[in-house]
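haha ok so turns out i had the wrong file open the whole time. this is the CORRECT one, sorry everyone. sequence first:
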Amino acid sequence: MVATQTRSRLTSARKEVDLTPTVFGELTDCTPMLEDAAALRRHMREEGYLLLRGLLNREEVQAARLSMLERLAEQGHIDLTYPLNEAKAAPSTRVAFKPDVARNNPLVHQVVYNGPMMAFFAHFLGGPIRHFDYTWIRTVAPGLSTPPHMDVVYMGRGTKKLYTAWTPYGDVPQEMGGLMVLERSHLNQRLVNGYGAKDVDKFCENRVGQGYTKMGGGGNISPGGWL
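then structure:
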């Protein structure tokens, strides 16, 4: 499922996506449930995701976006013949995963580790919360993509009681490459107890384990946000 309007043709990881209405459509906007924690938890249990629009402070998101683009430009990943905020990739770049642009970046930390984001999770979970110190940032160049995956493979040491917040740092029309979610996949026990039970070092970094597939141009596939 994708949170943007469908088109006549869509590809992901260089494979064409089936747009048949019975298998493809828009995510349910959960923003009307925002004040009802019980309804949010019920939707999460049943569908495996929450789509919340306008939750974050737009000015803070734009400031964080600009700070990351400045770092990417310094590293040669941005085509500076265009305005910086357009995030036009340099023709030669094959960048896909750049957690360093969030490291020691107070503007990014303000978006994901303070304010509305943390307040939401405290409301949703009904108690004190904490976040990871590490920030996963996707900066995907044209022609690349993130292969299908489960975040728990990368984040699940110690406890699997985790939630991932996918945070777009700017507007994301479908032409830019949005987020697709396999609804109710968290209820698929074969998937959860198979691939979902794997460890990142044993399964991904060492390229071993049943089910490992390297898909076209995905690069490092630990997610957390994208530009």
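Strands lie at 11-12, 15-16, 167-168, 225-226.
again sry for the mixup
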